[in-house]
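Exam prep: given the inputs below (a chain plus adenosine-5'-diphosphate), describe the expected output before reading on.
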Amino acid sequence: MKVLVLNCGSSSVKFQMFEMDKEDNIAIGIIEKIGSSNAILTFKPKGREKIVQTREIMNHQVALDLVINTLMNSQYGILKSKSEIDAIGHRLVHGGEEFAQSVFITDEVKEGLRRCIQFAPLHNPHNLKGVEVCEKILPGIPQVGVFDTAFHHSLPPKAYIYALPMALYRKLRIRRYGFHGTSHKYVVDKAAKYLNTPIEKLKIISCHLGNGCSITAVDGGKSVDTSMGFTPLEGLVMGTRCGDIDPALVSYIAQNENLSLEKIDNLMNKSSGMLGLTETSNDLREIEFEAEKGSKQHKLAMDIFCYRIKKYIGAYAAVLGGLDVLIFTAGIGEKSWYIRGEVLKNMEYLGIKFHPKKNNKNEFDIGTGKVKVLVIPTNEELAIARDTVTVLNSIKKETEKPVSEEIVSEEISQLTSDDKAELISIWFKNPYISPLELSQKLSKKSGKKVSIHVVKQELKILGLDKVSEKKKIEFTKRTY
Ligand code: ADP
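Solution:
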C-alpha cells in the first residue's frame, strides 16, 4: 500500500511517499517559496540523486500538481500513474476540541477543520487547501487527517484550563491544546517497544527539541500535560519563540515600545527565543560554535534554554508521581550532546543518571540510573502514514463486517423515495464519493442512520457501482 504524506504550509509543501508493506520511505521532497516566480522543488527518490529545480509556482494547486508530476516523472519519478497512490495522509496542525484522533476526511471533517481555523489561522487554511486540491487532482483517493493536537486530547481539565474567567473558555474555547502530538506519540510508543514493557505501565517525559520545542508528560501512554498551550508559543525557550513569560509584559511592551498587538505577537514568535537572546542566530549549531569560541551571551542563551527544560522535567515528574523514561527527540534532542548533558546534570535525586560517552555519541540508550534516558529519532511522516493505514483499515473492517441480508433489507425498507432521490443526488455531485461518506451525508440529510451496507446495496440496485467502475474507481479496492 502506497501512502503519500503531505504537510502543506503557507509557502511550502513537504511530501514523502511510503511503501507501507515494509514501511519503506521511497521518496522525499519539498517545494518552498510557493507564491513566487522562484519557488524551489527539491526531490530525492530513495537510492538515487537529489533533484533541485527552480520555477514559478504561484499557488498550492500548481505546487501539488508538480508534486504528482514529479512522483510520476519518467526519468526520476517513482510512480507510473496516479492510481498507484492508495491513500494520502495530511498533517493537520489544529483539531481544536473536535478531533481527538486521526480521521478519514469527509465534507463534515472539512467543515470541522474550517471551524478550527480560528485557533491556527497561519496553518489550518493551508492544510485545508492541500486537502481540497488533492480532491481535485487525485479524485477518489482516500485522504486521512492526522492532527498535531490529537494526542493531547487526554489532558485532564486541571491541566488544560487556564485560570482566566471561565466564560472565556466557554465562549472562545481558550484552553491548552498542545502540539507536536504526532512526534511525542511516536517516540513514547518506540520507547515502550524498546523496553519491551506495556506502555500502560510507563511514566514518560518526552522532550521534543527542534526549532519548536515542547515537553510532554505521558502516563500509561496518555498525554497528561504538555508545555505548549493555546498556541505553540507557550512553554520552553525555542528557536525564535520566547515560551513562558509574564503575560503582563504584553501591555508593558506595547506601552513602552509603542507596538501594536500584532507586532508584539510577531516579536514573541519570530524574534525571541534563542534568536532574541543571542542576537545572532536561532540555529543551535551556530550558537554552540559561538559559545565554544568564548561568547558569554551565547553561553547564557544555552543556559536559559536548558534551565527551562530542567524546570519542566521536575514539574512533570511531580505531575506523574514518578518517572520511568526520559526521552530526547528532534534536531537538538537527537544531536546536541551538550544540551542533553546540561539538562541531565544534577538530576540523580530523580533517579536520572547518564553515561557521558554514550551521550557524546548520541547513542539511543544513554541512561545508567533507575530512569531510562533514551535518544529517539522522531519520524512524524511515518507516524502519519501509519495512522493513515490504521484509519483506512478500521473503516474497511467496518465496511466488510458481515451483516445479514435481512438487516440490510429492513434498513432499505425504511428509506423513503425522497431518501433514495437524495442518495442519487449526492452521488451525482461526486461519483468518486466513498460509501462511507455517502452514508454519513445521507444519515445527516434524512435524520436516520443509513449504514454503509445499505448505501452499497442501493448503489448496486441502481447500477451506479458499475458506472463508478467504468470511471476506473476501484470500489472493490477502496471500500472506505
Ligand atoms: P524543526 O522544528 O524545524 O523540524 P529540527 O527538529 O530539524 O527542527 O531541529 C532544528 C534544530 O536542531 C536547530 O536548532 C539545529 O541547529 C539543531 N541541530 C541540528 N543538528 C544539530 C547538531 N548536530 N548539533 C546541535 N544542534 C543541531
